Amino acid sequence: MLDSCLLDNECAIDTVLCPEKSFDIIKRRLVIGGRKAVLYFIDGFIKDEVYEKILEYFLNVTEDEIKAIRDMKAFVRTKVPYVEAEACYDSDETVTQILSGPSVLLIDGVCGAALIDTRTYPTRSIDEPQKDKTLRGARDGFVETLISNTAMLRRRIRDSRFRVEYVQVGRSTKLDLAVAYIDGVADQKKVKTLMQKLKSLRLDGLSMTQEALSESLLKQAYLNPFPRFKFTERPDYAGASVMEGKIILLMDNSPCAMILPTTLADFFKETDDYYFLPAAGTYNRLVRLLVVILTVYLTPFYLWMVLQPNIWPDFFSFLLPQKALALPLFAQLLVLELIIDGLRLASINTPDTLSNSLGIIGGLLLSEFAVEAGWLNSEAILFMAFVSIASYAQPSYEMGYAMKFQRILFLILVQLFGGWGLLAGTVLLFAVLLSTRTLFGWDYLYPIWPFNARDFYKLFVRNKAEEQRQDG
Predict the structure, then answer these.
(1) For residue 204, what is the DSSP state?
(2) 3-state SS class at 186
(3) Structure pTM?
(4) CB atoms within 10 A of CB 363
(5) Which residues of 34-51 are buried (b: 16+ CB within 10 A; e: fewer)?
(6) Which one, of 45, 163, 154, 136, lies nearest residue 97 by Cα?
(7) DSSP label at 418?
(8) DSSP string of 282-295, one letter each residue
(9) pLDDT, tens digit, for every residue of 392-423?
(10) Are 288 and 244 in contact (CB under 8 A)?
């Protein structure tokens, strides 16, 4: 605890922070009203222009004005000319506040410390996210600063019931989190459960923010690839989710907002659905569902046709390979899966100035040259090219990998058991989905199981009720 002795308080903070060993931890000695004082802050975290005015006011405080002040609450209330200021009496909390950005003022003879929150973080502009762009709508996106993200939500939701609760997790990183919801619209039991889970986390640190946090909140089977959390970098989509009763979890140092609870149906909704007429939004949603199904079943179904050509009508013959190669079709499809993923990873690390030329080279290697060399069938390349491009029909990376793993499993089962393998894989897929639970215990297949007619209809049809919640 911090008492009125400046030397003891200073020693307690210096023992933990060691400012003499960290050049960016600034310790500034002052004299305020004839009393010795010490100011701690992180270089680069304070607003210089604002603090210049605050220090000018402090240095003009007279001895008579501060003579009767013995408690920091009284000093903050009468002598700190800044809005965001409060008193703190716990030394550990004071150290955490210094590392988080606010400056801390200690005064000899005054019990406690003054926390003055003039912090500002280095941040980028709120440009539209690269991954989740829209043809219409807002062009701003979440950034790595928590306060900026909550402000963008506040700008869109001017409801007096909108709540943003703060919690801090991680012993080392002490990550700042914000839980945003509308009181009376979001399920209060779920809000309470989430807050309890966050406060009960005993973690040393959360360096990779959203993924580390999601794995800590919900333990799941290692071999289950289906994501239980949906992320978005768009404030407009996050705001629409809040209006629908969802809970938004925002993390400092991350531009991704976590949407809770999340079921399988949520991954087939996109921001553009809300910016077009209901007919166009419905059409896009139906196309997206169809394309996602094709990305899982197209190549396994094609492999089944090639392995058992006699069971198919003659008009399907144009889909069959025109010549046999030394490499079986099953191996070709697996090789193409690996090559496409390799090129995708390479493109991420390719400088922008070289991306176009390397993309052309990669396309040539996977098409004409590979066919002429007799390595791959043109039909296999065609189907895998469609699958690769169509996998971006839904914006979630995690769901894209889940679909890929299911497709590879189907390929293996079809190669071993033919059509029965594809049927067995489908049954296994539904069994996994039925056994998957969300953070709050919801069925992952809702509204298919348990069946809800209204929400099942909304899965396929975009109507105005999804865009704007109507209060009864």
Answers:
(1) S
(2) strand
(3) 0.84
(4) 13
(5) ebebbbbbbeebbeeeeb
(6) 45
(7) T
(8) HHHHHHHHHHHHHH
(9) 888 888 899 999 999 999 999 999 999 999 99
(10) no
